Automatic annotation (TrEMBL), chain A:
It comes from the Bacteria. The chain crosses the membrane at residues 20-50, 62-85, 91-112, 170-191, 197-218. One of its GO terms (cellular component) is ATP-binding cassette (ABC) transporter complex. It is a multi-pass membrane protein. Pfam families: BPD_transp_1. Its main location: membrane. The keyword Metal-binding does not apply. Belongs to the binding-protein-dependent transport system permease family. HisMQ subfamily. It is found in: Cell inner membrane; Cell membrane. One of its GO terms (biological process) is amino acid transport. This is Polar amino acid ABC transporter permease.
TrEMBL record, chain B:
NCBIfam families: HEQRo_perm_3TM (TIGR01726). Keywords: Amino-acid transport, Cell membrane, Membrane, Transmembrane, Transmembrane helix, Transport. Its main location: membrane. Part of the binding-protein-dependent transport system for glutamine; probably responsible for the translocation of the substrate across the membrane. CDD domains: TM_PBP2. InterPro entries: AA_ABC_transptr_permease_3TM (IPR010065), ArtM/GltK/GlnP/TcyL/YhdX-like (IPR043429), MetI-like (IPR000515), MetI-like_sf (IPR035906). Belongs to the binding-protein-dependent transport system permease family. HisMQ subfamily. This is Polar amino acid ABC transporter permease. One of its GO terms (cellular component) is ATP-binding cassette (ABC) transporter complex. It comes from the Bacteria. It is a multi-pass membrane protein. The chain crosses the membrane at residues 20-49, 70-103, 187-209.
Amino acid sequence: MGGFENFLFSFFNLKVMATYLPLIAQGLGLTIVLALLIVVSGLALGLGLAMLRACGIRPLNWLIIFTVDLFRALPPLVIIVLLFFGLPAMGLGMSSFAATWLSLTLVLMAFAEEIYWAGITAVPKGQWEAARSTGLGFFQTLRLVVLPQALRITIPPLTNRTIAITKGTALGSVVGVAEILGASQSAMSFSANPSPLTLGAIAYLVLFIPVVALGRWVETRFAWKR
Amino acid sequence: MEEFAFAFLNGDILREAWPILWQGFLYTLALAAITVPLGLVGGVVLALLSTSGPRAIRLAAAGWTDLFRAIPPLVLLVFLYAGLPFAGIDVGAWGAVAIGFFLNTGAYYGEVLRAGIESVPRGQMEAARSTGLSRGQALRYVILPQAVRNVLPDLVSNTLEVVKLTSIASVVALPELLFQARQAQNATYNATPIVAAAVAYFLLLWPLVRLISRLENKALAGR
């Protein structure tokens, strides 16, 4: 076999790819479900924390800031390993899927809170004062006046951060989640051929290149006028 | 409560695991000291190509950036470490980490620096050239310093991500902090080493997180 044929046989082996396509398609499905769950719960929790922080209760805010800092500083893989291998020692074992979901949700929550909070503080104080003086309550002001303005400017950084964190679903393979990477690695060991890994990489590209392009578009579309 | 302390904050186990955890911590620092400059070099090259080359090269650089931003770094690392040997190319764990981080973090730094270069008004280049500076000199002395200053929060934040990302080197068995903590956990059947590793990461990176928050708030206030 020549070098090129060897390369094709190893990385673009159509026979192997066809055999394991269903397995990797399942992995793709799992990655999408996991990513959507993380995006929904992470963004919602982040917004909730930012709104709590807007209430301005000192000790509570310190707690929020510490939690946010903690999950911004810890590598996601460390959190996943801690939840998956550590918690069973307390009788709180969770599935590898749940551990991955919870870890990345906490990470996205932390980054999202920081971005939402930056957006809320960027709204001029006069907006608060004017809204309150028309008789709106604190939460009405936050919901109807401040957040609509704040959220618009948070869209570009939030999109990019969300994309980066959803790619972390691949880390689930370390604790045995059969998402794209996990499925490709099993297929690679079954077939003793790395073509399934090529297929897995293609699956990620199909999934994420449109998302990365969307992120780029959002960045120019919602760019702050300087 | 006692059970919790025994499983997660066990002093005896911490003492026992301390030497290899410390080694892992130093290894993580060394990994960061290698991967950050590698990524920066890749990023500067990509940013220059995607802003000042001919159109075809600009497009190729943008495509390259999107490609390596779309592939999760762990996938890249597994591919380099476990896939390439099938084609007779064995780069080893270190090689896989170096190449993988160069490709992945290079793309991220490249994107940040590109935004920085594009934020510098065109007139700056024209003015610099008209004073007799060459293109390279103008880039080096006029454009890049302003570009870096404009995107400093993003650069620091990306650096934080790179240092955190070194934890995936545990998957290819490089003895960094997370890997050593897992080894110690397997040997002792106790989660304390992993908790200790998490605390170490937090203590190492918390100052950086605080710095980023301050830089971001300052950038926001300046608008």
